Amino acid sequence: MNRRTFLKAGAAAVGGLAASHLAFAAEAEILLSPGEPGAVINPHIYGHFIEHLGGVIYDGVWVGRDSSIPNVDGIRKQFVDDMKRIGAPNLRWPGGCFADGYHWRDGIGKVSGRPRTYNFWQRRMPAGIDATETNQFGVHEFMHLCRLIGAEPYVAANVGSGTPSEFHDWVSYCNAPTGTLSLADDRAANGDPQPFGIRYWGVGNESWGCGGAMRPEEYATKYRQFVTQFPNYTAPFLVATGPRGHSADGDIGWTTGFFEAMHGFEPPQGFSLHFYTDLRPTPLKAGDFKAPEWYEVLLRGMRLDKVIDDHWKEMGKFDAAHRTKLVIDEWGVWYAPGSEIAPSYILSETITLRDAVHTGMTFDIFNRHAEKIAMANVAQSVNCIHSLFVAQGDKFVRTPVYHVFDMYRSHMGARQVPVSNPVADLNVPVLAGQAHLPGLSASASIRDRRVTLTLTNPSLDSSLSLRVSFAGGARATETRASVLTHSDMRATNSFADPDEVKPATHPVRVVADRLELNLPRQAVVLVECAIT
Ligand code: AHR
Questions:
Q1: Element spanning 480, H or E
Q2: Which residues line ligand 1 (CB under 6 A)?
Q3: 330 catalytic, yes or no?
Q4: Ligand 1 centroid to residue 96 C-alpha, Å
Q5: What is the pTM (predicted TM-score) of this model?
Q6: Is 51 a catalytic residue?
Q7: Whose CA is nearest to atom 8 of ligand 1?
Q8: In this predicted structure, what is the pLDDT of residue 24?
Q9: Is the pLDDT of residue 17 over 50?
């Protein structure tokens, strides 16, 4: 179901939002059709990503067994608890660009015996700061983390500097039953007699760039070499490297080239799409901005809707049955350097209410495209781009983005519900003048007659007085709502003020057969109800 279908004009069209700088409450009515549910929203859409980069693994996730910071066998306890709390469905590791330089054998066996190796990100470290990889956090530690959280592992294999046989050995080491292959016995000797049963394998990462600078047809050949002899202990979900979706042209040529070159061969189950709201080439700052920069970020983020459609359509030319699904395994708002936690925490950035609103709008896009997306992974969960957490030594804080993950969690595994949303576009100031931005972002889902409706009002000026009706005579009961907002669009959570931006209970009324609520400006709202 695309955005057009979802946003087709509904019962009561709203006008007057064009003059965006007047402070007023517009009125709108949206219509939900819970009797016509669509695709199941794959829980994996709400997935995660951690890479050996800056302060992500070392400090963010791994504090070490001897640390005074509360930990479970070296893993930061607060990270585990909070990821568990939001039901993190999966965790992608070890990269990113790091993956195509990583040799898995370096990260197994006695910790004291593990080698120190080169980390791809050394080239980005400020002068004099070392990023040598200590390999303290390897595949056993990663699997322990996944088990603690209850997340499914998604491992990115090394195609750029590895070999098919190194990949196959890694898969066998992880998945073969003890007592069969010697590699399985090695795993048992290293503390894990039970096979890891890893299903999700990324066959390289950004193979057009840091993963080997290949052309799509060259990568397609590599892909086939890497997967043809795949050790099939656990039926795999193989993810091929896909396009750089945030390129100016959406990088459609990569998709065409890859699938053309795969003609006559078994297609992958997943095709990776990276989409960063990439502000690095702009003067825009992460934590200090005005209205045009607020809207610029949201507008650029919304381009994802078309990028998904374009690649899906292209994939359909080669695979009408759409056996291959999209895996958006890196997404987030990426600002130019300048707001790092500390110099060695490269790529970390200040996360504000703007990024939380961007997250709500992105999740609504994912939900509306649920039939196309098998998985998505925020880049990255801690101490990085678009993070849910900031951790430094014994300090830890949840960012505003964390709260949006929490608010959207009931969508996981529910079936999408069509939302007719007639709210007119806003005419907003952006870096290069004026632009149109959706006046309301919405998505809904249903599970066991419980409806989840998420709404984002991106306007800095106007609240929305909203009526929510149900098609087919359904009536709502047991209604509750919460809101994430702040009077300052730049609001953030810091170690000193960890709860500056956090959800609050929000009033919602049941009036006859519909719901009524106010949607404040610059806010994400969650409404949950039962329907009879
Ligand atoms: O998430 C940071 C980096 O962005 C990843 O390592 C790479 O895949 C992408 O370019």
A1: strand 476-484
A2: 51, 95-97, 205-206, 330, 379-380, 385
A3: yes
A4: 5
A5: 0.95
A6: no
A7: 96
A8: 60
A9: no
